[in-house]
Design goal:
The complex is a heterodimer of chains A (277) and B (69).
Chain A: E1 15-24, E2 42-47, E3 50-58, H1 59-62, H2 64-71, H3 74-92, E4 99-100, E5 106-107, H4 110-119, H5 121-131, E6 134-143, H6 156-191, E7 194-197, H7 203-206, E8 211-221, H8 225-238, E9 243-250
Antiparallel strand pairs in A: 1-3, 1-4, 1-5, 2-3, 6-8, 6-9, 7-8
Chain B: H1 2-6, H2 11-20, E1 38-39, H3 44-50
Classes of the chains: A alpha+beta (277), B mainly alpha (69).
Chain lengths: 277, 69
């Protein structure tokens, strides 16, 4: 792997650098044999106290227009997302903090990667110390539509009455389910160090039958992991109706926002959007 | 972790994190490859086309506080 930053792939194709994560410089190098997006090997780009883990990707796929087109292709998006996650997963297997970057963060050359590290060094270091020794866990609550046990209405008036009654009982059932989801979130939030609510998942993407009432991410220190998972198990057992789903441990994706990044000269500053509870 | 960790990660869970989490290294704009070396995409269009927000619930982040996607 050359480190000149710009260049071409073996077949003469121009390449860019896909940035997966930022880690402390003291961390181990990316594992040999690990492949990222597009099957490319990884390399480390160090700068002072930080290292960026990057891999070459074809410019023909990651330049503005092709990238836009690709992102509308769910199969391409999935392959890219899984390639990204594979790298983050392998990196988090080692001790030490890994700051995952958002999907498709791409630089034109390694000099650009270094500038990125140097411009944001203090904030990266702050985030690394804030997140070291912690993992993210995902908890979702789903509830199915209320069951109906009514008989078919005999008359039009019966039908109207039944419809009104049904609306009231459905509303009541959803209200209870939402209360349950809220209680689950508050219990988990009390054990977690931080939490963040993602928007409810679309059933067409999740494949889940019910309505997604809670899609929470919880930042949990290692020493509280057992306690957190035990609590999830207890809450799942107590639920009457709604279903609870746990994923993790994840790298702290949902908590990796770095506020006040060095502004890009050409872009409007992004307002801080803290959604943690 | 064990059982949970070995199960294949659902794409939708992954996208929650990769499209709404992670360190964002540019402004929330489209990529400007001509003059800036750092490229990031605006995924809002994709996400809204693939996954229009489900019905709001008491716990759902509202549009006003939704994370930058």
């Amino acid at each position: 792997m050359t480190d000149t930053g710009t260049g071409t792939l073996a077949d003469g194709e121009r390449r860019y650098w896909y940035v997966y994560a930022v880690t402390p410089a003291a961390g181990p190098p990316p594992p040999d044999g690990l492949r990222g997006v597009d099957g490319a090997p990884l390399c480390a780009v160090p700068h002072d106290d930080l290292t960026a883990v990057v891999g070459a990707v074809p410019a023909a796929d990651f330049a503005e227009e092709p990238l836009r087109r690709h992102l509308e292709d769910l199969a391409w998006l999935e392959a890219t997302a899984r390639g990204h996650q594979r790298v983050i997963d392998a990196l988090t297997a080692d001790p030490g903090c890994v700051l995952p970057l958002r999907l498709a963060t791409v630089c034109r050359d390694t000099a650009g990667v270094r500038r990125l590290l140097s411009a944001n060094q203090e904030r990266f270091l702050e985030a690394i110390s804030r997140l070291a020794g912690r993992a993210e866990w995902g908890v979702k609550v789903f509830a199915d539509a209320p069951e109906r046990t009514e008989t078919a209405p005999a008359t039009g008036r019966d039908y109207l009455r039944q419809r009104a009654r049904r609306r009231t009982t459905d509303d009541e059932a959803w209200r209870r389910a939402e209360e349950t989801a809220r209680a689950v979130h508050l219990d988990l939030d009390a054990v977690a160090e931080q939490s963040r609510l993602h928007r409810p998942q679309d059933p067409r993407l999740s494949g889940e039958s019910g309505r997604n009432l809670l899609n929470g991410a919880y930042l949990v220190p290692q020493e509280r992991e057992q306690e957190f998972c035990a609590l999830v198990g207890r809450l799942a057992g107590q639920l009457c109706g709604p279903r609870l789903n746990l994923t993790g441990p994840w790298a702290p994706y949902s908590f990796a926002q770095v506020n006040d990044l060095a502004p890009d000269p050409d872009s409007a500053p992004e307002p801080a959007r803290e959604n943690a509870t | 972790m064990n059982e949970l960790a070995t199960r294949e990660i659902a794409l939708v869970d992954l996208l929650d994190r990769l499209l709404a989490g992670g360190v964002v290294l540019t402004g929330n704009l489209t990529l400007r490859i001509a003059d800036v070396d750092l490229v990031r995409i605006d995924l809002r269009a994709l996400v809204s086309s693939v996954a229009p927000a489900a019905g709001q619930t008491a716990l759902a982040a509202t549009d006003g506080t939704e994370e930058d996607i």
